[in-house]
Design goal:
It contains four helices and nine strands. The chain has 208 residues and is α/β, with parallel strands linked by helices.
Amino acid sequence: MALHVRGALVLRACIRLCLVTAALVASPLAAQAEWKPVEKVETYAISGQSGPELYRSIGENGPNAGIARAIAHTNFKLTWTRDYQAHAGACVLVSAKPKLIITYTLPSPSSPLPSAIQKNWEVFLAGVSAHEKVHGASIVDMARKIEAATVGLTVPDDPKCSKIRVEMTKRLSALSQALRQASRDFDRVELGQGGNLQKLILALVNGG
């Protein structure tokens, strides 16, 4: 998620989609077990002793998000261990094991805050964190959809398992585009009139 902090409150999706695929040596179908993503939290320092000062510092120090700075950022790296096998001239994707690392980047005050401002900040940060977790859940869902859409894929007349990779790229592209659109739609609602993020920002800035 990205927030333009020097003008109107405009939120843009800021998820860098890193779909990195790797076809490695064969792994048995039994290895196609339940998997879980690795989630990490990184922070960037901001300064200020009031809501407006903290918000202004976010605009100055937040992660780059194209033409604006972001309040928070959800990034991920998705790699795959895939087992392609040739059978009777066709190529089959027998198994695919994902490794998904999701990184949330959040703001963190560099010095203690006055008690009343600290309470406001905690509410704001909890709301922003919850927003980014929705993006994270969407990324996990995309990875599971990739798994479901590709494992068992069979391409005829492909003994060298080259054509299947072209088909895989098409399927992955469609799913990643769907994730981008869902992210933009979610952000639009969250920062729209009466949206949750809009309320959080206004509460922080107007709260002292």
